[in-house]
Design a protein that fits this description.
The complex is a heterodimer of chains A (369) and B (244).
Chain A: H1 2-17, H2 19-40, E1 48-52, H3 56-64, E2 68-71, H4 74-82, E3 88-93, E4 96-101, H5 106-122, E5 130-131, E6 134-135, E7 141-142, H6 177-202, H7 205-210, H8 216-246, H9 254-276, H10 282-302, H11 310-317, H12 320-334, H13 338-362
Parallel strand pairs in A: 1-2, 1-3, 4-5
Antiparallel strand pairs in A: 3-4, 6-7
Helix pairs in contact in A: 1-8, 2-6, 2-8, 3-5, 6-8, 6-9, 6-10, 6-12, 8-9, 8-13, 9-12, 9-13, 10-11, 10-12, 12-13
Chain B: E1 4-13, E2 16-26, E3 31-35, H1 42-49, E4 57-62, E5 65-66, H2 70-73, E6 76-79, H3 91-101, H4 106-119, H5 135-147, E7 153-157, H6 165-180, E8 184-189, H7 192-195, E9 200-205, E10 208-213, H8 215-222, H9 227-243
Parallel strand pairs in B: 3-8, 3-9, 6-7, 7-8
Antiparallel strand pairs in B: 1-2, 1-4, 4-5, 9-10
Classes of the chains: A alpha/beta (369), B alpha/beta (244).
Chain lengths: 369, 244
């Protein structure tokens, strides 16, 4: 036990001397969160729609629906669409409303369709929406209609929306905020602990320690304690900065959020150390990171997996990050308490115990006893 | 009873045999030198003797008990070929860490560190990180960490590499003093004048001992004026049958 404490003290002293790492571990995730929040908090996109021989009430309704409109004839419009200098061209052909869209960005196309649909019902022009396939400069033809939602032609009374969770002023990104907090902690802790342990090996100190009366579990425990204390501070700063400075909504207990973040940090620390066993240089560590960390982040719940094949959903259940995501969202967005997220926490701590044991066993490579 | 005895040590990495059946014994108060070119298997042998690596076959007994053993490691000081120091830390912090693992605390730790630094001929700077030390200073600090717990047996892999001659002489005086106090030392080297200072030498080449004896004895048997010439003599005699 004294030995583990000696390792812990040494690690904390190394941190104390390494101000840059100290700063990076805290600043990097906070900066990234802030940037994301700014991007996703920006106002909705205003599509530029070119119109020709359309009724003025329709054009006015387009502007009301959040689009910018300009007059253009067919040839001019086609040139501008081809160069992606406009999003759509609307005109009437044989009494039918016809829309050409630029079409490379589905979210912009969606904005065009929404604006036109809204304008259509407002201006009481009852016309068919006919979206022709467009040909991109490379000669590739895209049937854009396939990617678009079926427009509602009738505009009903706006419904009264009541929120069980969340609030009307939540941005789309707020749903992802809790996930990003965990994912950044996962990523940065993995890299720092993995490389730190790798240095222990490449610098010869691990071999040296294995020639000393230090038990393998004492070394792993020492690391877990040293990094644990450090990631506790780091998680606290990241969580507090996310909620109180960047402004992620939190409807749950801040302590529970912190506890989930810390649990995740411990998992990634032990995972980083274990993975470093399979790398002999820092470059190899980065390569392993690409196949071990990136898939976990992709399947963590940042992207909705509910419609993906079953195997992918099972795979995501094999990754600890998924349980962090579930827990964080439940607490921060739905105000869940410990009783609601206990299963996620149990799984995370099972991973901690499992990875701890795996590290102790992996060190056998250097010394059997 | 020898302090350390190794019998028929075979070690291989993949299909490459690095040690092909090496045996040795070292007695209390003796300085045993392992002399050989790089790639001869010195470091591999030293790692096996120190219990850092386990051989494919063969036995190492230290103080009459089989290695590796955590309890025996308390009585052994090991200095690896790499300095094995924490570069972010100061010299004192390095010593405090390694000392703590050997169970030294507070005043005892401080006293042990001062003694080890004297033995290693090193004066440390309080605030300087080891990163900013010269290669020679790091080497001596590494030696000091191996001496901290006042071990009965010291296993040192190239302890004086990169040192200026003045420090080298000082350190060999320390080794001599430690041996006179009843400590036992195993030292690898490829420097001939250091080999001369050992009580007994084992010449190693291609994973085998080609000769063992006191420096004077080895020169006598080879009929050579220097250890270098003696090494060449034994190397050609030994490899004559095998390489041909």
């Amino acid at each position: 036990m004294h030995n583990a404490l000696a390792v812990t003290i040494r690690i904390l002293r190394q941190f104390a001397h390494d101000r840059r790492t100290l700063f990076m571990m805290v600043a990097a995730p906070v900066i990234a969160l802030f940037l994301l929040n700014t991007i996703f908090g920006a106002p909705a996109y205003e599509p530029l729609i070119l119109v020709e021989s359309m009724p003025s009430d329709f054009t006015a309704a387009l502007a009301d629906a959040g689009a910018t409109t300009e007059m253009a004839d067919y040839n001019d419009a086609m040139v501008r669409l081809a160069d992606a200098n406009a999003d759509a061209y609307v005109t009437t052909r044989d009494d039918a409303l016809t829309v050409w869209v630029e079409g490379s960005d589905p979210s912009k196309t969606g904005a065009v369709v929404r604006a036109i649909t809204q304008a259509q019902s407002k201006s009481l022009v009852s016309l068919e929406l006919d979206i022709k396939p467009i040909t991109l400069p490379g000669g590739i033809e895209i049937d854009i209609a396939k990617y678009l939602p079926i427009p509602e032609l009738e505009l009903p009374e706006p419904p009264e929306v009541r929120y069980i969770h969340g609030a009307a002023d939540m941005h789309a990104f707020d749903y992802h905020g809790p996930v990003f907090i965990g994912v950044f902690i996962f990523f940065y802790v993995f890299v720092t602990s993995g490389i730190s342990f790798l240095r222990e090996r490449t610098g010869g100190t691990l071999e040296r320690l294995m020639a000393m009366p230090l038990r393998r579990w004492e070394l792993v425990l020492g690391y877990a304690q040293g990094f644990g204390l450090f990631v506790l501070v780091q998680s606290a700063i990241v969580v507090l900065a996310s909620i109180y400075w960047v402004g992620f909504p939190n409807f749950g207990s801040i302590w529970l959020v912190l506890f989930i973040a810390l649990s995740m940090a411990l998992v990634s620390m032990l995972m980083g150390i274990l993975v470093s066993e399979f790398a002999s240089t820092e470059l190899q560590m980065m390569q392993l990171l690409q196949i071990i960390v990136i898939p976990q982040i992709l399947l963590s719940g940042i992207l909705d997996l509910s419609q993906t094949p079953q195997w992918m959903q099972w795979l995501s259940r094999a990754f600890p990050v998924t349980y962090m995501t579930d827990g964080m969202r439940a607490v921060m967005l739905r105000g869940a308490g410990p009783g609601d997220v206990w299963l996620d926490l149990v799984v995370l701590w099972a991973f901690i115990v499992l990875l701890f044991g795996a590290n102790v066993v992996a060190l056998k490579k250097y010394r059997r006893i | 009873m020898p302090i350390l005895a190794a019998r028929d040590i075979v070690q291989s990495f993949g299909d490459q045999d690095v040690l092909r059946g090496v045996s040795l014994g070292v007695d209390r108060g003796e300085i045993l030198g392992l002399l050989g070119p790089s790639g001869a298997g010195k470091t591999t042998l030293v790692n096996v003797l120190a219990g850092v690596a386990e051989p494919v076959s063969g036995v190492v007994m230290a103080f009459g008990e089989p290695m590796p053993s955590l309890d025996l490691m308390r009585r052994i000081g090991y200095m690896a070929q790499s300095d094995a120091l924490y570069l972010d830390l100061t010299a004192r912090e390095n010593l405090e860490f390694f000392g703590a693992i050997y169970g030294l605390r507070a005043d005892a730790l401080k006293a042990a560190a001062d003694r080890a630094l004297r033995t290693a001929n090193l004066q440390v700077e309080p605030r300087k990180a080891v990163r900013d030390y010269s290669g020679g200073m790091r080497r001596r600090l590494s030696l000091a960490t191996a001496l901290l717990h006042d071990p009965e047996l010291l296993i040192l892999d190239e302890p004086t590499i990169g040192l200026d001659p003045l420090h080298r002489v000082g350190i060999w005086e320390s080794f001599r003093r430690l041996a006179a106090e009843g400590r036992t030392l195993i030292v690898t080297t490829h420097v001939m004048d250091e080999a001369e200072r050992c009580d007994r030498l084992a010449m190693i080449r291609d994973g085998e001992f080609i000769a063992m004896g006191t420096p004077a004895d080895l020169k006598d048997r080879a009929g050579a004026p220097t250890l270098e010439a003696a090494f060449l003599h034994f190397a050609t005699v030994e490899s004559g049958g095998r390489d041909a």
